[in-house]
Amino acid sequence: MEIIHAVHVFVKSLLFVLLWSNSEGRDSELNYVTCGSLVKLLNTRHNVRLHSHDVKYGSGSGQQSVTGVENADDANSYWQIRGKPNRPCQRGAAIKCGQAIRITHMKTGRNLHTHHFSSPLSNNQEVSAFGENGEGDDLDVWSVQCDSVHWERDEAVRFKHVGTDVFLSVTGEQYGHPIRGQREVHGMSSPNQHNWWRSMEGVFIQPSQEPQRHDEL
């Protein structure tokens, strides 16, 4: 009887450890930005969210403009985190530091993009939204620059453009009509205080689970 009792105690202890570790693992998964997640990205220096809309630049490439907005509730500030062209990331997998990704505008289906055009206000490198239905070209690819193993939700990160080596940045210049008050978003050649971004509101996709909401959509 003593042996049977000891076995029961052992099994119960083992079960507790397994359940605890599974719960811990799930909790830790929720701390990361994952492939397929829909997020708003905040520039921490200027307190504006990455934004786009079907308004074209009047100079440079003439492509869809990308700006920064102070309004936290604007639905045009949602972006989906995706894999490289022809190399999709696994849905719900945590994005690794250094991983190459695409950042796709939810409302228009165009990808965050940059190229060798001058930005209209600061004369840095123009950042636009490019492509159709989520498909553009190789200049839509950005590398997540962070200090951990994975991109943590509350961590400030940088986005370095794979094709031209610039960092996604805001330095505070404001547009006039028709997008009055919105800030210019551009590429800068060096890392600095103007190119830190943090994930904010959104829906964070988990492997084989329902999306996890973060604040309000």
Write down the Rg.
21 Å
What's the order of the H and E elements? HEEEEEEEEEEEEE
- β-strand number: 13
User: Number of helical runs?
Assistant: 1
How would you classify the helix and strand content by structural class? mainly beta
How many angstroms separate the termini? Answer: 58 Å
How confident overall, as mean pLDDT?
87
Low-confidence runs: 3-27
How is the main sheet built? Answer: 13 strands, antiparallel
- Beta-strand portion reads 35-45%
- Proportion of helical residues: 10-25%
Instruction: Give the overall silhouette.
Output: globular
Structural commentary:
This protein is mainly β and 217 residues long. The chain contains one helix and 13 strands; from the N terminus they run αβββββββββββββ. Strands 1, 2, 3, 4, 5, 6, 7, 8, 9, 10, 11, 12 and 13 form a 13-stranded antiparallel sheet that branches. A hairpin with a 7-residue loop joins strand 2 (48-56) and strand 3 (64-69).
